[in-house]
Write a structure and sequence with these properties.
Blueprint lengths: L1 E4 L5 H10 L4 E4 L3 H9 L3 E2 L12 E4 L4 H9 L4 H4 L5 E4 L5 H12 L4 E4 L2 E2 L1 H7 L2 E6 L2 H11 L3 E8 L4 H29 L4 H8 L7 H4 L10 H15 L4 H12 L7
Parallel strand pairs: 1-2, 1-4, 2-3, 4-5, 5-6, 8-9
Antiparallel strand pairs: 7-8
Helix pairs in contact: 3-5, 8-11, 8-12, 11-12
């Protein structure tokens, strides 16, 4: 049995894909509304995951913050306290690399396997089952993670055995994503000042050297709410690594001023 912890805008379709692929799936979310949505789609839910942790072969964590991940992992009713040794935990949430490394160390002391497994391509990728996953962790654990994620992941890149490496890969993805988003917003604002039709211009740009993923999905830019969190992780990671990132420092300011992006 696989427990999906977090039935939000991405976790819910992921759990549905896994169940539809034949996996025995149980869902949990602290929100009764989110649990009801999974039930309405034929899913099985619990209101207290601690009771099913001992039966879980794997736990998939897809929540929004490090605080939530830490509570799920090490809280009184959490994974470390209740899961069996050998249980595989996939941390799909976007978190800082040093954080996932620390969680992995704590879990390993109880014999619990952790794979760093963030995903890209946003909610639309989760719904379509076409996410990109970056994975890091022990080789055998990553292979097991690939098998579990297959129902909703179209592409996988295993980036190393060190927990945190996958989060760095996701962070690099996000640094480039939000830089492109801010360039898109700025460029389209200039075009509007000259009365160019933004939809026509965007159709042209995605066939040209300005093409980028954010521009392709610009009509849904408001569905990408994590820019501030992502840039904070990027700047903290760069500082820890001693890497200068002046463009990302500017992007960090610009995403907070954006009139297009939505902030969680």
């Amino acid at each position: 049995m696989i427990l999906y912890s977090g039935l939000g805008r991405m976790g819910l379709p992921m759990a549905c894909h896994a169940r539809d692929a034949g996996h025995a799936v149980v869902g949990f979310d602290p929100s009764a509304e989110r649990r009801s949505l999974f039930v309405a789609k034929g899913g099985q839910v619990v209101t207290d995951p601690s009771g099913v942790y001992p039966q879980a072969e794997a736990v998939v964590i897809m929540v929004g913050s490090e605080r939530q991940v830490e509570e799920i992992m090490t809280g009184e009713g959490g994974i470390v306290a209740h899961c069996r040794p050998g249980t595989l935990v996939l941390v799909i949430s976007t978190v800082a690399p040093e954080f996932i490394a620390r969680m992995g160390t704590v879990a390993l002391a109880s014999g619990i396997r952790v794979v760093d497994a963030p995903v890209c391509r946003a909610e639309m990728g989760a719904i379509a089952g076409t996410l990109l996953a970056f994975l890091s962790g022990p080789d055998a654990d990553c292979r097991d993670a690939v098998a579990l994620m297959k129902p909703y992941v179209a592409d996988v890149e295993i980036v190393g055995t060190r927990l945190g490496a996958a989060q760095i890969a996701k962070t690099v993805n996000n640094m480039i994503l939000w830089a492109c988003a801010m360039a898109n917003e700025e460029g389209l604002r200039l075009a509007a000042a000259w009365d160019l039709d933004p939809a026509s211009l965007r159709r042209a740009l995605v066939t040209s050297s300005a093409n980028n993923w954010a521009l392709q999905h610009w009509d849904r830019a408001g569905e990408m709410p994590w820019s501030i969190k992502d840039m904070e992780i990027a700047l903290r990671s760069a500082l820890d690594a001693g890497v200068s990132v002046p463009l990302s420092e500017a992007v960090n300011v610009l995403v907070r001023r954006s009139q297009v992006l939505r902030h969680a």
